[in-house]
Amino acid sequence: GSRPAMPGLAKVVGHRGARARAPENTLAGLRKAAELGATWVEFDVMLTADGVPVLMHDDTLDRTTNGQGSTAAITLAELSKLDAGGYFSAAFANERVPTFKEAIDILIDLHLAANVEIKPVPGHERQTAHAVAQILADSWPAIGPDLLISSFSKTALTEARATAPALAYGLLVEEVPANWASLMQELGCTSLHAWHEKTAPEEVASIAAEGVPVLLYTVNDPSCASAFLKAGAASIITDVPDLILPAVDHR
Ligand code: G3P
Ligand code: MG
Description:
InterPro entries: GP_PDE_dom (IPR030395), PLC-like_Pdiesterase_TIM-brl (IPR017946)
Structural class: alpha/beta
GO molecular function: phosphoric diester hydrolase activity
Bound molecules: SN-glycerol-3-phosphate, magnesium ion
Organism: Arboricoccus pini
Oligomer: single chain
Domain GP-PDE: 10-248
Protein name: Glycerophosphoryl diester phosphodiesterase
CATH architecture: Alpha-Beta Barrel
């Protein structure tokens, strides 16, 4: 069957916003990425206890907020009281954990393209994917910024695609599996997102030669980024877009 066209990927994608420059997965982080010149951002989405998609990486609140305990156990109302910026620096104190809908509004406002990573708490794959895809199907503008959904979870990718078949999907892996091509085909994915520490530039070159866009995460060293881009990587997902953008060859 026909697959949705790949979005126009940029060579630099801000990781969790611009993770080294602003608290990850916050609205301030999305704004910071844009301010630093990124045209794409990646961020993680999971569900609150009451089923609301929010931007959050960890299963627990402890690392990135002043709260404690399981992310899946807190309601949006309680989560909204937490500080998700103070751990990063005083300048970002009182930054909140944004809802996915709030993030979408900012992305549209800033014309910032998004790699939405569905990051379900284990056991919540289906609900998380359905909620994320439903919001995108309902509220992402047809003529809006580019959009690419990814996940490590095959269950999440399958459910999201069933909910929003017209969107573009990427398969997230640590190490590229030998059966990457059939796996992508089975899951309806058009891009492959691999961990740079487990992926050699030569491997990127051979996959790119098949016409498959490869994105590497999380590359914070400009010469490493250059090597992957030279090998044919489509994008570098980075905590430091300001350092990686100059490494991109603007011919
Ligand atoms: O989407 C790329 C990357 O973000 C995947 O790893 O743990 O940073 O979400 P993680
Ligand atoms: Mg991520």
